[in-house]
Design brief:
- There is one protein chain.
- With 880 residues, this protein is α/β, with parallel strands linked by helices.
- 38% of the residues lie in helices and 17% in strands.
- Strands 1, 2, 5, 8, 9, 10, 11, 12, 15 and 16 form a 10-stranded mixed sheet that branches. Strands 19-18-17-20-21-22 form a 6-stranded parallel sheet, sandwiched between helices.
- It catalyses: [(1->4)-alpha-D-glucosyl](n) + phosphate = [(1->4)-alpha-D-glucosyl](n-1) + alpha-D-glucose 1-phosphate.
- InterPro entries: Agluc_phsphrylas, Glyco_trans_35, Glycogen/Maltodextrin_Phosph, Glycogen_phosphorylase_DUF3417, Pyridoxal_P_attach_site.
- Its EC number is 2.4.1.1.
- It is an enzyme of class 2 (transferase).
- This is glycogen phosphorylase.
Length: 880
């Protein structure tokens, strides 16, 4: 273009001016409205409908257009409207009541305060992501949503928790589709000033923590605080001027960047997180945590930092400091497959934990031992974060009963002397935070109230007619469909379509059609496209003339997962077909805002992972609380709580090695269940009584089990309180920790000499009969240990074809006689309490009051030759 033409274009259209920095300016509220600021700054509003009502009353249209974001609402509401509200006595009274209700919520005694004599002062809960609300986009999927629900339930129960995470300036990615249905990622900038969080200050200056890095570099981070009800969530932010450009980018994206970038994030979360907790407690006076809980291995370095603290400040040696740390640490694994674990090159760990970087208090070789894969099949060149997490925590758990079994098998190499059943990893099944996920209409219909201990009272459901329930579900279905139509329209516009060609979107989905939901991350094992194994069969279900089905699908693939993106594209291309696009849709950018109308709007929640690779899978729990029935492979939590009154179990072809054949079998089982069981029951009458009977049963019987308050109480009673007791015992003078460390060293050194010489039964008879009690005697050589150092136990129960004892029962034997050479006889009784193949064995295990499990040291000694019936050489005058 000629220069004069350029000038004319500029004069006519203007030149875009891009800001070099962006920040949010918050309004100054009139004095009578300062309570709005109080409500905004506590994230309880995210799950408290009455507080949301107050915000909506400020400006209903603006509340909707801002997506229910109170910070944006107050930033955009006209000053004239604020002045009007400042003189509106009815609104001010409503605001006053809401502020008073919040004050009561955060100050009054709740379940934890009334539970009686808990020794727990505080718990620090570390997680790489937290899903509190869509307004605070610091989560990617199930791990973050679970962490958010954990904090909310802890707040409801009054459990003294401090959350610890990172503040990602770009969060996780926003998902869209291109014309070909391929996933596109973009990373919207997160402006902390536009979030309901505040900067922790130390006097007049922002509070910061510092980590040393290789090459004489330093990593600084400031601390943002999100108040989640009663629970503070600390989020570390490296995007500050004190850092060099590369260090400022450490907290740029969730699960992004190179291997070293990921390591720096985990160093900041673990090491920096401990320092942030110390800083927060010093500034605010909050009780210091006695228990540190790491939600997955990402925060595992917190244990290394605590050991360094104890060595530097209390002059403890490594082994003593390790015992102090272990006693007060809980580790939760969410990973069902080894590939899901973070592993770093050993050389990278050596660089970041050398004496001149991390400090001289903790020898680098001891740190490397913590994450070493020194077991059969391990890779000595890699440092394993989950392995370190298990070695640094005295208590560990999986997130469902089945996942506990999977985890014990997956990590059995750390305890080679024990069968997987004895591996010290327990399970606490996940739960979901009902106030966050249950639609208000469902709550009003089914729950009388939330009790003081955070549970729900379900008696209200018995006072509701079938017709009322059915009409409510239709209303929620319609609301979900309206939301979905809006999202599908926007998705097609983003894909390049014009408004003129999108008239069909207004008629997609039907509020009177059986609606199924499928929404989750898109790794291959979750099998997004299993329903597409037989496209014609699926079409026949979608287009059935009398009993049609419609399916709404959502999910994100990791940005580097090309296989997951191909699965999404395959699903999108099927859903783009004009023949079926009114019955099946893929909705991009699955997040909390999409999920909240989706769960109540669905009649059936579909889940078809490869068993047993679903650790828990809480989306089906959220759907169940909203009156949806589950249709799922028996994996994760569904394996544990399945009942045919809660939904349907898709038969698993587990054990068939041909994955294509397995997928075919399970897909066709899925089609059959939908066609022959689900759809006929849904369409059985104008108001399907049998369906509603299942819905009632699901909410009343399954509902209490899937609550996050139940989950958090389990953590408190089974893990937090025992860990706090251990922590106090080891922290009081550190003498207990020194003694425990010395005792472990002694036992490990002496263990090669421990053996069971001989085992015999008395009174068995020629034909063992059910109910018979027989005597058992075992002779054990203890080498350099004392009888108080060990425990002799018999394990017995039904045996399989390989003579392995299934579900063994343990009985401790008593010391009966002492012989020369530090040899002993132990006796007890064994009851034959079951028929069929029966077996037993005897073993010696370490015994100390400081152990949380007999398997803690990974040491066990059994009969050296269980086939040998001879009696060992015994001292003269013995009974045998």
């Amino acid at each position: 273009m000629h220069p004069e033409g350029v000038l004319r274009a500029i004069a006519r259209y203007g030149v875009p001016v891009r800001a070099i920095r962006r920040f949010s300016v918050r309004p100054v509220l009139p004095e009578p409205l300062t309570g709005l600021g109080t409500l905004v700054n506590n994230l309880r509003w995210a799950w408290h409908p009455e507080t949301q009502d107050v915000f909506e009353a400020v400006d209903p249209q603006l509340w909707r257009s801002t997506g229910g974001d109170p910070v944006k609402l107050l930033g955009e509401v006209p000053a004239a409207r604020l002045d009007e509200l400042a003189n509106d006595h009815a609104f001010l009274r409503r605001l006053e009541l809401a502020v008073a209700d919040l004050d009561g919520y955060v100050t009054e005694d709740r379940w934890f305060q009334t539970a009686g004599g808990s020794p727990l002062d505080a718990v620090a809960y570390f997680s790489p992501e937290f899903g509190i609300t869509h307004v605070l986009p610091q989560y990617s999927g199930g791990l973050g949503i679970l962490a958010g629900d954990h904090l909310k339930a802890a707040s409801d129960l009054g459990v003294p928790l401090i959350g610890v995470g990172l503040l990602y300036r770009h969060g996780y990615f926003a998902q869209s589709l291109n014309r070909e249905g391929w996933q596109q990622e973009r990373y919207p900038l997160v402006d902390p000033d536009g979030l309901p969080i505040s900067l922790l200050r130390d006097g007049d200056a922002p509070a910061t923590i510092t980590l040393s890095l290789p090459g004489n570099r330093e990593l600084h981070a400031q601390i943002w605080v999100a108040q989640v009800g009663r629970v503070p969530l600390l989020m570390l932010d490296s995007d500050i001027e004190e850092n060099e450009p590369s260090e400022r980018e450490v907290t740029d994206r969730l699960y992004g960047g190179s291997t070293e970038h990921r390591l720096l994030q985990e160093l900041l979360l673990g090491v920096g997180g401990v320092r942030a907790v110390r800083t927060y407690c010093r500034i605010t006076g909050h009780p210091a945590p006695e228990v540190f809980h790491t939600n997955e291995g990402h925060a595992g370095f917190l244990g290394v930092e605590r050991i360094r603290e104890l060595a530097a400040e209390k002059d403890l040696d490594f082994d003593t400091a390790l015992e102090v740390n272990r006693g007060g640490t809980v580790f939760t694994t969410h990973t069902p497959v080894p590939a899901g674990i973070d592993r770093f090159p050993v050389e990278l760990i050596q660089q970041h934990f050398s004496a001149d970087v991390f400090g001289p208090e903790v020898p680098i070789e001891r740190i490397l031992e913590l994450g070493a894969e020194d077991f059969e099949g391990g890779d000595p060149a890699l440092f394993n974060m989950a392995i370190m997490g298990l070695r640094l925590a005295q208590r560990a758990n999986g997130v469902s009963k089945l996942h506990g079994v999977v985890s014990r098998g997956m990590f059995a190499g750390l305890w080679p002397s024990f069968d997987p059943v004895d591996v010290p990893i327990t399970s606490i099944t996940n739960g979901v935070h009902a106030p966050t996920w249950v639609a208000r209409e469902v709550h009003d219909l089914t729950y009388a109230n939330y009790t003081a201990d955070g549970d729900s009272v379900f008696e209200g459901l018995d006072k509701t007619t079938d017709a009322q329930i059915w009409e409510t579900k239709r209303l929620l279905r319609q609301r979900f469909i309206d939301d979905t139509r809006s999202r599908v329209r926007q998705s097609w516009l983003n894909r390049g379509a014009s408004e003129a060609e999108l008239g069909w979107v207004d008629s997609i989905l039907d509020p009177d059609v059986l609606t199924m939901g499928f929404a989750r991350r898109v790794p291959s094992y979750k099998r997004l496209t299993l329903m597409l194994r037989d496209p014609e069969r699926l079409k026949s279900l979608l287009l059935h003339p009398e009993r049609p089905v419609q399916i709404v699908i959502a999910g994100k693939a990791h940005p580097h997962d090309e296989g997951g993106k191909k699965l999404i594209q395959e699903m999108v291309r099927f859903a783009d077909d004009p023949e079926v696009r009114h019955r099946i849709v893929f909705v991009p950018d699955y997040d909390i805002a999409l999920a909240q109308p989706m769960y109540p709007g669905c009649d059936v929640w579909l889940n078809n992972p490869l068993r047993p690779y679903e650790a828990c899978g809480t989306s089906g729990m959220k759907a169940a609380l909203n009156g949806a029935l589950n249709l799922s492979i028996r994996d994760g939590w569904w394996d544990e709580w399945y009942d045919d009154e809660f939904g349907w179990a898709i038969p698993s072809a587990e054990g068939i090695e041909d994955t294509e054949r397995r997928d075919d079998l399970e897909a066709h089982a899925l089609y059959d269940i939908i066609e022959k069981q689900v759809a006929p029951r849904f369409y059985d009458g104008e108001v399907p009584g049998r369906w509603i009977e299942m819905l009632r049963h699901t909410i009343k019987e399954l509902g209490p089990k899937v609550l996050a308050t139940r989950m958090v109480r389990d953590y408190v009673e089974q893990l937090y309180v025992p860990a706090a007791q251990s922590s106090r015992a080891l922290n009081s003078t550190y003498d207990g920790a020194r003694e425990l460390a010395a005792w472990k060293h002694k036992v490990r050194a002496a263990w090669p000499e421990i053996r069971v010489d001989h085992v015999e039964l008395q009174g068995l008879g020629d034909v063992p009969q059910l109910g018979t009690t027989v005597g058992i005697r075992a002779f054990a050589a203890l080498g350099g240990l004392e009888p108080s150092d060990i425990c002799v136990e018999v394990l017995h129960g039904r045996v399989d074809a390989n003579d392995e004892i299934t579900d063994p029962v343990r009985t401790t034997l008593s010391q009966a006689q002492t012989y020369e050479g530090n040899r002993y006889r132990y006796e007890g009784e064994l009851k034959l309490d079951r028929t069929g193949p029966f077996g037993y064995t005897v073993r010696v295990v370490p015994n100390h009051k400081g152990l949380a499990s007999a398997a803690e040291l990974g040491l066990a000694a059994g009969p050296s030759d269980p086939e040998d019936p001879s009696t060992p050489d015994l001292p003269a005058g013995s009974e045998f």
